[in-house]
Design a protein that fits this description.
Elements (H helix, E strand, L loop, with lengths): L8 E6 L6 H12 L2 E4 L2 H12 L7 H9 L14 H11 L2 H16 L7 E6 L2 H5 L5 E6 L2 H12 L8 H17 L12 E4 L5 H20 L1
Parallel strand pairs: 1-3, 1-4, 2-3, 4-5
Helix pairs in contact: 1-9, 2-3, 2-4, 3-5, 7-8
């Protein structure tokens, strides 16, 4: 599914945590045989690499060097969701040189998808606005705060049965505010993004809605 210029078909998926964008991205990658990048793991990946090698995340030069040498293969099967890695990721994410290196990594992934794939799907919070402003199609996936909190709570309580829904809701609300108000690449929908509200939709319906838009682009490009 390539274009006449053989440029990769790039799908940008943005939205807040627990909106369903990751589930949608993985499903679309399987359907279209595109390469998928969960950009949320990149800072955690750099943090884990530093911790695993006995390096200090607050060492800005070493963190930047680690980010410039980053590869997905290096973090395969790494425990990226641990609290320790999360805390370290917050430190490295504040490093402007780390952010610049990972921005380059994301753009390279989109322009030259691994395995000579005809397309790439990236999900995050600033893909359509900053990382890939020229993406073939952009989606902004959202859901009500209450619905997202319930989803995340159900996910987390498998490993942390003591966790309370109210705490998860408060955390998500704080995170939304932080992501949307930050000066550097805030989480906002691109002007030309297709909006999908998953609050009351089953995943099959979400996938169908996205496919309708993507398939229409394919059909128009083939004319």
């Amino acid at each position: 599914m390539g274009s006449e210029t053989n440029k990769p078909f790039v799908i940008a998926l943005d939205g807040p945590a627990a909106s369903g964008k990751g589930t949608l991205a993985r499903a679309l990658a399987d359907i279209y045989d595109f390469e998928y990048l969960d950009t949320g793991i990149l800072y955690r990946g750099v943090a884990w690499l530093m911790l695993d090698n006995g390096l200090l995340p607050k060492d800005e030069e070493t963190a930047a060097a680690t980010a410039r040498g980053f590869s997905l293969d290096a973090i395969k099967d790494a425990p990226l969701r641990s609290r320790e890695v999360g805390a370290a990721a917050s430190v490295v994410a504040a490093n402007k040189n780390v952010r610049a290196a990972l921005l380059d990594f994301q753009r390279t992934f989109a322009v030259n998808p691994p395995n000579n794939s005809a397309g790439a799907i990236l999900d995050g919070r600033d893909i359509g606005t900053v990382v890939c402003p020229d993406a073939t199609v952009k989606f902004f996936v959202s859901a009500s705060l209450e619905q997202r909190a319930k989803r995340r709570w159900l996910e987390l309580k498998e490993d942390r049965p003591e966790i309370q829904l109210a705490d998860v809701l408060a955390d998500l609300k704080e995170r939304d505010t932080r992501d949307a108000s930050r000066a550097d690449a805030p989480m906002i929908a691109a002007d030309d993004a297709e909006l999908i509200d998953t609050s009351d939709l089953a995943i099959d319906a979400v996938i169908a809605a996205a496919r309708c838009i993507i398939d229409d682009i394919f059909e128009r490009s083939a004319d």
